[in-house]
């Protein structure tokens, strides 16, 4: 068992850090995706409310500019 442990410790994978950045980016993307899924219902209704207000203001300005001026 000791020889097996020494062989595993001697592998270069323990000192190789080339894949570390990829792993960190994957974890960050996973956390962001998880947060987006968790907060999307609340965020979705807020965004719809904001866009609804924007559309109402744009329609108001469109109606004002289309009305005949005396």
Any low-confidence stretches, pLDDT <50, length ≥5? none
Work out the radius of gyration. Answer: 29 Å
Tally of alpha and pi helices: 2
Structural class: mainly alpha
Structure summary, number of beta strands: 0
What percent of residues adopt helix (DSSP H or I)?
over 70%
- What's the N-to-C terminus distance? 98 Å
Number of domains: 1
Beta-strand share of residues: under 5%
Spell the H/E element sequence.
HH
Q: Based on the structure, what is the oligomeric state of the protein chains?
A: single chain
Shape: rod-shaped
- Report mean pLDDT, rounded to a whole number: 77
Verbal overview:
The chain is mostly helical and 70 residues long. The chain has one domain (2-66). 79% of the residues lie in helices and 0% in strands. The chain is built from two helices and no strands. The protein has helices at 2-9, 20-66. The longest helix is centred in the middle third of the chain and has 47 residues, at 20-66. It is rod-shaped, with a radius of gyration of 29 Å.
């Amino acid at each position: 068992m000791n020889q097996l442990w020494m062989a595993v410790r001697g592998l270069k994978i323990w000192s190789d850090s080339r894949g570390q950045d990829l792993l960190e980016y994957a974890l960050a993307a996973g956390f962001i995706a998880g947060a987006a899924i968790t907060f999307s219902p609340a965020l979705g209704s807020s965004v719809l409310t904001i866009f609804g207000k924007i559309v109402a203001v744009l329609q108001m300005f469109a109606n004002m500019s289309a009305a005949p001026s005396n």
